[in-house]
């Protein structure tokens, strides 16, 4: 049961099939199939069963997945620890909300790179819910998220507190439509709650990008809730206006989250240093 085989097994689970796993592992489909068959033969159990076109885990497969993730994570930690004995090197996989990536992350990464030029940074954007799940599964080392972070095995620190505002086309009345991020975004949840509190019924329109949402708002297709700091610096700032919302909707902390097993990973400590500076600067500007 070598690490390559375990990595292949996890890839099949994550990608939902052999073909997609082969693409993600940069190999051919036959290699993936062969490794899985050898793994099943060595354990004497079936790890998957087919349901339509999708592969699902058997109970034995679910047990192995938990151990496989832990073993692969231990391998990464060991590699990073050895590399960091001589110099601050290795890889740090960072997840981020799109709004944080657009406004805050470049400065954080620049400071990190200036201090530790040999640290390889991998960045993945997504919704807060998807990023939290990825950290729990050890697919990311840490992530910047908003919303509920009280989850099993998750540690967190508040980085800053964003103020959400209602955004609409400048000089226009409220169109009866709320434009939302996709499912899993903390800002989406607050926008839905704002809509429910209005006397009129609001339709919901979903978009996947920050620019797409604000572009639609700027031409009067709907309203949205967004951090005021994003609006100040976006290309549509001259075409939109902001309105304050209730305090319970406006308050939106951003957290750095990480798995409790990652607390001593050198890369995580390195990342938190520029964030401490960022937090102090944010507090001074309020």
From TrEMBL:
Pfam annotation, one family: HTH_1
Annotated coiled-coil segments of the chain: none
Which positions fall inside the HTH lysR-type domain?
Answer: 1-58
A GO MF label = DNA-binding transcription factor activity
UniProt KW keywords: DNA-binding, Transcription, Transcription regulation
Q: Which family does it belong to?
A: Belongs to the LysR transcriptional regulatory family.
The identity of this protein, by name, is LysR family transcriptional regulator
């Amino acid at each position: 049961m070598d690490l390559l085989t375990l990595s292949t097994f996890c890839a099949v689970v994550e990608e939902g099939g052999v073909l997609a796993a082969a693409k993600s592992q940069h190999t051919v489909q036959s290699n993936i199939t062969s490794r899985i068959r050898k793994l099943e033969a060595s354990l004497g159990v079936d790890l998957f069963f087919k349901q339509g076109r999708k592969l699902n885990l058997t109970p034995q497969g679910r047990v192995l997945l938990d151990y496989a993730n832990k073993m692969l994570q231990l391998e990464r930690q060991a590699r990073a620890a050895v590399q960091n004995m001589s110099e601050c090197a290795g890889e740090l996989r960072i997840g981020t909300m799109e709004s944080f990536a657009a406004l805050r992350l470049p400065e954080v990464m620049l400071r990190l790179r200036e201090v530790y030029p040999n640290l390889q940074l991998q960045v993945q954007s997504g919704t807060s819910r998807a990023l939290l799940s990825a950290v729990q599964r050890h697919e990311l080392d840490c992530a910047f998220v908003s919303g509920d972070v009280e989850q099993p095995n998750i540690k967190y620190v508040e980085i800053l507190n964003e103020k959400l505002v209602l955004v609409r086309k400048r000089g226009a009345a409220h169109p009866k439509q709320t434009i939302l991020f996709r499912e899993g975004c903390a800002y989406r949840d607050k926008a839905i709650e704002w809509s429910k509190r209005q006397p009129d019924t609001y339709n919901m329109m979903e978009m996947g990008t920050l620019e797409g949402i604000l572009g639609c708002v700027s031409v009067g297709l709907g309203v949205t809730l967004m951090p005021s700091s994003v609006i100040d610096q976006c290309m549509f700032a001259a075409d939109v206006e902001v309105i304050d919302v209730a305090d319970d909707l406006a308050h939106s902390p951003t957290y750095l989250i990480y798995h409790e097993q990652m607390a001593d990973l050198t890369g995580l400590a390195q990342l938190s240093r520029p964030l401490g500076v960022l937090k102090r600067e944010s507090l001074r500007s309020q």
